[in-house]
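User: Predict MarR family transcriptional regulator's structure from this.
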Amino acid sequence: MPNKRHYSFGMQLALLSRSWRGELDRRLLHLGLSQARWLVLLHLARMPMVPTQRELAKSVGVEGPTLARLLDSLEEQGLVKRLGVPEDRRAKKIILTERAQPLIDEIKTISMELHEDLFAGIDEADLECCLRVHQQVLDNLARA
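Assistant:
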């Protein structure tokens, strides 16, 4: 049976995630992109291979139709392109355009500044311990 600390851990983790994303959204507000749009751009920029629309949806954690609408607007802004996949006519690869690169660079810079601010004063050993705990929780979830 979960104890009070288990409950607090989960609630704190959820609050941390929402607050972190909210602060990044606040810092990126001047770019004129919704959180969903800059998140898609950031995921695209960090993926090692050009993803299909389905792979990108999984990475971002949204349903296919939701991502399709986001990509429509990003495509209208000239920030992404959809390319056909010869071996699967239904699949589309998603690439960033040259126009997106300065925006991606600014998102990354602001994101790194936020990381520096958020991790100020946190000892490396404490961070390692936290990462081990999070990984164990993730491993337990994977087995559930």
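The chain has one domain: 23-143.
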